[in-house]
Amino acid sequence: MSLPVCEEILLREEAGVLHLTLNRPQVRNAMNLKLVNEVMATFDAIADRSDIRAVVLRGADANFCAGGDIKDMSRAREAASQNDGEDPFFVLNRAFGRMITKANYAPQVVITLLEGAVLGGGFGLACISDIAIADINAQFGLPETSLGLPPAQIAPFVVNRVGLTQARRLVLTGARFKGEEAKALGVVHFTTDSPEAMDELLAQQLKQIKRCAPLANRVTKELILSVGQVEHETLLDKAAQQFSTAVQGDEGREGTQAFVEKRAASWAQ
Q: Which ranges does the record mark as transmembrane (predicted)?
């Protein structure tokens, strides 16, 4: 399936990696409904593409994402006053949740490069990334409650990332913090102190990802995300079947043969 034509995000495919850039720098890449729909369409388009091994999410002009676009909310308010049908506020907010969920369950490895503003929905995207790399001066936070709003679609992902105890503090105080505290909380895995260092670390992580078999990574990510969602014994039965299939499949045969022959597997060359 080909990539969608987009206006609010930039897409670049290179060497098995899809680079997705939020491209609304005039509002620090705040997300409107159009951007949200474009991100969802992109993840739908690559869902079955095993040739794309990783997705790198970042924001244009050294800001990741300042959350939801307040102007979009104002337009929803105007629509609500003129609409007797579906609630436009519900539609707008629920779309954010669907987007973050699609990114969370993407079979590719999702990497976020976090610079500048990492707020609201941007914070939510950081919380679902498989690998998160942050600039030490990036500004993290959940400002929704200070605006009189709940972080409705984001809160569950924050709890999953940092645990209930820390999530309570973060969402109920609208706390702001930088990269090192984000690392201590477990929001991010690595911090860097320059764009060059971030790009170098990204290259290292991509190299490691490409050492792993594409299908094995997909199956493993699905397994990890099923923990707590599927009954324990049922999950282990499914995992055993997936293991059996993998051992007898092309990747399993190639991987074990490459090990015996002391060479890199075909997918890592």
A: none
